[in-house]
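Methods, example record. To illustrate the input and output format used throughout this study, we show the complete record for GTPase Era. The sequence lines were provided to the predictor; the line carrying structure tokens was produced by it.
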Amino acid sequence: MNHKAGFVNIIGNPNVGKSTLMNAFVGEKLSIITSKAQTTRHRILGIVNGDDFQMVLSDTPGIIKPAYELQESMMGFVKSAFEDADVLIYMVEIGEQALKDEAFFNKIKASKIPVLLLLNKIDKSDQLQLETQVQEWTTKVPNAEIYPISALEGFNVKEVFNRIIDLLPESPPFYPKDQLTDKPERFFINETIREKILMHYKKEIPYAVEVDTEEFFEEENIIRVRSVIMVERETQKGIIIGHKGSALKRVGVEARKDLETFFGKQIHIELYVKVNKNWRSNANQLKRFGYNN
Ligand SMILES: Nc1nc2c(ncn2[C@@H]2O[C@H](COP(=O)(O)OP(=O)(O)OP(=O)(O)O)[C@@H](O)[C@H]2O)c(=O)[nH]1
Ligand SMILES: [Mg+2]
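The corresponding predicted structure is encoded as:
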């Protein structure tokens, strides 16, 4: 039997729905999703296995002009996604004009590998707007195949999936056939906690936060974890904890619920908050948190 396998890398501006699409393909919540930009900070693999194919998807951070080292590293992940792709997925959303970063945009236009341009969130548009935008994107990225989709509502998702399978090269699998991702358990704990912080805190707070799970003990019926929420300043620590610890408690409760679904097991989370001055601009700290690319 012929076997197909390849890397399918999803790139685009922040908040367009890249993570929503990857999760829809994989059928698991591998990537966190929020309404805020820069939710995804890493390159996260989501592997879809069939009898005769293996689709290795990469979710990547939204493209931005980096202002500090963490963001430099995030854009490093995007760059790496250009290097090994067999199929490139360039995602845009209804109403959007183009990638803000011209160098990246030109790379897509000059791509030698197949590019699928997915015009997402069409559930928010009408027929006229949709047709106009498909026309515009056809002119802007003539080398791409364009698909209007709704990653959230599943519109055209199956069709795009089948098209990707068509485009995958013949190859043996790159990963064991029962593997779903390249990230360890602790990563999903960190990310789920960070998702709750993105959802419940305003302004700069979520961007100043990193989560590190220091202890992870799996027993037969329960997983016990101890995670530290890192902030950059003392004042941020107080905000995270909240009045009598109520804000932090909410983060813990909501993260636990999601993680119990994800792992299919009872979870006990111990959370604490620590100041780690300017970790976002410190190369050693960033390396420690997995931003070394
Ligand atoms: N209406 C609508 N909303 C969507 C759709 N797809 C995603 N969203 C919403 O758009 C927001 C951003 O989605 P994400 O999947 O986190 O976007 P992203 O591109 O991964 O964002 P970053 O990781 O920050 O770059 C969330 O609120 C999603 O629920 C869609 O098809 N329709
Ligand atoms: Mg994302």
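Annotations derived from this record:
The radius of gyration is 20 Å.
The longest helix spans residues 246-263.
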